[in-house]
Amino acid sequence: MGDLSSETMFKEAVDRAAADIAKYGWHIVAVQDDDMVSPGFLYTVGLWETYQHPELLLYAPQWDPSPMAGNITSIVGRIAGGESFVAGSRYPGPFRSFSGAFRRVDPAHYGEHFGVAGAYYQSFDFPALQLFWPDRNDKFPWEAGFESVPAQPLLDQ
């Protein structure tokens, strides 16, 4: 038997997402590390339904991902304005003077990373992109010369 409070909290999270999607067209979920050790992450719910754009996922450099919410909000504003982001491309602006890059999220990672989205859509049948921030030399984790920074796991594999 599952923990009723966890089930209730999850249902409330899905209900909040549905309310935000009805009102704003999308919702953001912040997942932080309870042990305050591993990096947290953010993801969207509703972009696929509202804009036919893949959902977005962004890892933070610290356990609390909420300071990175503005980066996602900025990208969603661009999507709402008609811009589309695709895997394998680099884009100016997501991180102030630094570019951002997107890679496809392999569906094998959806269960661990998109719980509220899966419940909202009643399946994991939606595309998702992971947004990456660069190191101080504007290099990304898959590029030669990348300087190790806090974990941004490569979820495209």
Q: What is the distance, rounded to the nearest whole angstrom, between the alpha carbons of the first and last residues?
A: 33 Å
What fraction of residues sit in β-strands? 15-25%
Beta strands, count: 6
Low-confidence stretches: none
Shape: globular
Mean pLDDT: 91
**Radius of gyration, Cα only, in angstroms?**
15 Å
Which class do the helix and strand fractions yield? alpha+beta
Largest sheet: 6 strands, mixed
Percent range for helical residues?
25-40%
| Number of domains as seen in the coordinates | 1
> Number of helical runs?
5
Summarize the structure.
By secondary structure, this protein is of the alpha+beta class.
Describe the protein's architecture and organization.
- It is a single chain.
- The protein is of the alpha+beta class.
- It has one domain.
- It contains 5 helices and 6 strands.
- Strands 1-2-3-6-5-4 form a 6-stranded mixed β-sheet, with helices on both faces.
- Helix 1 (4-24) packs across helix 5 (115-121).
- The protein is globular, with a radius of gyration of 15 Å.
